[in-house]
Amino acid sequence: MGYRGSGWFTFVRDDDNFSKLKREQIWPLVKRVLRYARPYQTQIVLMLLAILATTGLQLLTPLIFREIIDDALPNQDVTRLNLLAFGLVLIPVVSGVIRIAQRKLNAAVGEGVIYDLRVSVFTHLQRMSMNFFVNTRTGELISRLNNDVVGAQQAISSTLVEIVTNIVTVVATLVVMFTLEWRLTLLGLLVFPLFIFAARRLGTRLRELAREQMQYNAEMNAMANETLNIGGALLVKLFGRTRNEVERFSGRAVQVRDIGIDRAVAGSQFFVLISLVSVIGTGLIYWVGGHLVLNGVFTIGTIVAFGSYLTQLYGPLQSLTNAPVTFATSMVSFERVFEVIDLPLDITEKPDAIVLDNVRGELVFENVDFKYEIDETHLLHNFERPGRAENVRAVLSGDFSRRDGQHEEKTNGRHQPADDAQSNDSIGGYSQVREMALKNISFKIEPGQLVALVGPSGAGKTTMTYLIPRLYDPTGGRVLLDGHDLRDVTLDSLAAQIGMVTQETHLFHDTIRTNLLYANLDASDEQIVAACKAANIHDFITGLPDGYDTIVGERGYRLSGGEKQRIAIARVILKDPRILVMDEATSHLDSQSEALIQDALKTVMEGRTSIVIAHRLSTILAADRIFVLDRGEIVEQGTHDALMTQAGLYAQLYETQFKDEREMI
């Protein structure tokens, strides 16, 4: 069994090379991002105007200081002093109001884009085939839907805005500084190489610590995910390993704590060094400028103004040194999001697809072949994020020595449903291992017939039923419903005609009523009750304290297997489909409940085409026809009595699986 759950996998980097998006990759991405921002162009223009306004207001403050020092105070001009002091108060107030408006515009653009992206990603994922979900980790999908979409939002609402703001601030500040005194401006820029040196040296150290911290967090989260889900918690308690798990978690938490302290200290060192560089620049200005003042070259107010401008200049300059990495990281988030949106669909709907209506239920397989294949162009790829630790290899329980894929079953590049996995179960001394899941399957089921599928584990029964609702498309041949190739009909109308109950019943963490209404959103309470009575689950539900409003728990874990299956049967009854597909829907029921369900199913199946993967003799005996599968082929077909007289595979299955049950009937 392959470990596919998102709780089992975390992603870390195992190299120190940050891939950089090439220029030919970035500009198409930027153009595509701009298309998503196009509906918000009015807000973007207003936001840019707000940035210019706040930058201009910031440049006025040092000039006011210069006027106070060089003009108002020496000339004892009280009126001018009052006006200039009022200006020092008014400028921050006006800037604050503009910043609030800018933040609102910024948030409107960012949240609008994240909404558009998230809906686009989720919509596309809903249209992906089962093959995609079988071969893709859930955690990776959630990462694309949440982390990467949020990263894309931050690129628009934070990163790009910050870069634009810093560029405008630097350019405007330098223009004003050169206008005031070009010699002092060049002197202030002499320390800029020190900024780059500090950012490169300590910035690299901070990134290394960030990678280690994410790795340790990955180990801790993997361990927590393994032990805090329902199955993991149950396993820990059954084996009495609570103390061991606490110690294991504590060891990982210690690593996270220690690396967090190291990162905090390194961050402080970085900002102290940056502050020292700023102090050096300011000291040079006051030292050289002071001598120039003594020589009468310019005034004291000019030096004070330059000191303020340097503070406004060094901060944006330092941010711009990291802008390429920040920008590339943001673009990777967009690239990861767009990769999902651009994934080709395995199961497509033709533009002129037929809407199924008044379906009779005639089902035909014509020379159907099927093979589980992995097309890498239809799957997600790993992306490296410049400056971030992410996503190169998978770890199980924090064991970094185990490479991704060593714990998955892979045979000829295919991933199969549980029933059709290449197991070693065999009848007659041979296994079901093969390359083709289905081979040359041909049959016709008349409307209203009940057909049973029988065969050893891995023979292809579940795969055959998956082709009926187009969870997969045949590799060869075709499947027809009322004479229509399933690839020629709309997906929604096909889904409306087919009801399927699987062995592994999935229930949402919600009320019983909500889970039932999933089949028919417009169903009345009377219809719900009637469906539950037919499935022999109504009395159980009404006996619960909250009745139909009872929360079933994660995956329905608060219910027994039989109770979940009966709710699943009630759900499919409520859907009222023309074709029923049941993977032995009564396999988890006791004898009394099964008898009641069988009576109910006789009524439900009447007039409907029904395909049942049968593991119980009672189902087989009720079938109009029985198809016996072996190694992906139909090797026998007929009624129970006819197949028994052939003394073939069906007779062997009967002797090994159904004989004792037959004696009890």
Q: Any key phrases for this structure?
A:
disordered N terminus, alpha/beta, ABC transporter transmembrane region fold, four-stranded antiparallel β-sheet, 21 helices, six-stranded mixed β-sheet, Rossmann fold, 665 residues
Provide a descriptive summary of the structure in words.
The protein is of the alpha/beta class and 665 residues long. The chain has 3 domains: 21-180 and 323-346, ABC transporter type 1, transmembrane domain (ABC transporter transmembrane region fold), CATH 1.20.1560; 182-297; 438-664, P-loop containing nucleotide triphosphate hydrolases (Rossmann fold, 3-Layer(aba) Sandwich), CATH 3.40.50.300. The chain has 21 helices and 12 strands. Strands 8-9-10-5-11-12 form a 6-stranded mixed β-sheet, with helices on both faces. Helix 18 (591-605) links the parallel strand 9 and strand 10 (609-613). Helix 2 (41-72) runs antiparallel to helix 3 and helix 7 packs across helix 8 (230-238). The longest helix is centred in the middle third of the chain and has 53 residues, at 242-294. The chain is elongated and about 120 Å long. The protein starts with 9 loop residues before the first strand and ends with a helix.
